[in-house]
Amino acid sequence: MPSQQPASLRNIESRAAWGMLAPAMTLLIIFIVVPFFLAFLLSLTNERLIPRPIPTKWTGIRNYIRVLTDPDFWQALRNTFWFTFFIVPVQSSIGLGLALLINRQFKGNHIFRGIYFLPTVVPMVMVAIIWAGLLQAPEGVINGILRQISFDQIGPYDWLHHEWLAMPTIMLMSTWQGVGFQMIIYLAGLQNIPKELYEAARIDGANLWQLFWFITLPLLRNTHIVVLITTTILAFKLFTQVEVLTQGGPLGATNSLVRYIYVAGFQYQKVGLAAAASVIFFLIVLAIALCQHHLIQTDKD
Amino acid sequence: MSKIIHGTYYLLLIIIAFLMLIPLIVMFSTSVKSDEFLILKDLGSMAAFWPGVPEWENYQQILGDPNMPFLRFLLNTLIIVFSIVFLGIGVNSMAAYALSRLKFRGKGLIIATVIALIIIPVESLVIPLLLLVNRLGWIDSYHVQIIPFIAHPFSIFLFYQFFNKIPKSLDDAAKVDGADFLQIYWRIILPMSLPVIVTVAILQGLEFWNSFLWPLMVTRGIEYRPISVALAQFFGRDPKVWGDIMAFTTLASLPLLVVYFVFQRWFIQSAIGSSIKG
After folding, report:
1. CA distance A184 to B268
2. Which of A171-180, A239-248, B268-277 has the lowest mean pLDDT?
């Protein structure tokens, strides 16, 4: 029966495949796919976290109107964008700078690489608390250093409770924690550039700046895209350091989009409203991811 | 001349290294000072960097506080992270093996779906997920912090890519010897996959060691609370006792820092691996 065997073999193979896929697929469906669609559905209702005697009702787009007319939402969105617009270029360029600095053969370069990358493995809650100590007012390390180098002219500032300083302070702290990641990605990108290109250009009389501008930067194009998009999405999820250090304050000056969702859904238990904000948050992240896809596509052409 | 350039170069490297280390140095130095007035005085000066003669009273206090059982929190985090990583490696690699090696209907669709799921940020799912686990009665438990995160689209994708690079002739040879698919996966593919297993373990492990938003919402008491939420809570109490806070923070960061120093090369490899995301 040689003609039947392939069919039954295929059957066995397909059954084995579904068997091996089953655990992962079940979990993905229950904990990602269902919540994903649930977010859309809930955003059209007045659902609360704790069940009420009054049944949940469809409310159409009322939650979206509420979110989009809420000044707190716009402030959180503005803060998140402002944080992202700062973090992305600053972390990427410092990361590139550090990568260029240690991308050479010298004694101990892996020690420096290890130290620069170290803060990225310290969890954000701990980073935030360590910095809270450094930023103490009036007598913290940073105020102390500022006072000494300025001969008592500058400070002391209450970094985390000052409406204009709180967000920049959070940015600074986040850069310190995160920059090792961008450095490592750029380092991997730099090591992919063929050394012969530099040698050829040097024979043609190019100086260091020209080498950087005409060889290094353009050949890192793909790395730039990866770094920019990954950093943007990471920055957009801003939550932990804000929740630990300022709870969004002072006067909402450091509130973020994710924290807005958390406060609406968990603290005020307005699941419908928080779901609407979650959908908006997801759509923004999706737009960023599509941009990346588009950039990479045009790159291939 | 080149000696001067060389010297400046090293000086620059050392200054940056110092900037990266200062916060951690201050953390440790503060944690071994037992006089709170001295700590506040030192924090405003260069003495903040210097531990002096280390005193371990803060550590004794932290480890002996029955209201804030440090070891319990650490154990909770370890249980959660190890369960996710261990179960995750099994579940995700098995799915990836089926997607990479076996022929069946609908495979293309499933691969596309898994890749699409990668871009959904957990933060946009926490509210419906919270409603779901609340109705299931899962609040305040270990499994509410483990089960939703075992299956991980990005880990499946990393395994899938790695398995695609393993020559199929190995499978065929085993098939001739009478091995079934599960045996091929278990005896041939997995033992060859150590690099990707380590990458996935580090990425998923770090992600959930760091996890803060979810445990903040689903743990109520100290019983199941992980170290990150416990530390944030300890820090939130007023008045702030910096010696104790920094001792707590040092203890909480220590396990990960030790693992990092031992497996540094692997951590850096996984960071590079994570950047192909999206």
Report:
1. 7
2. B268-277
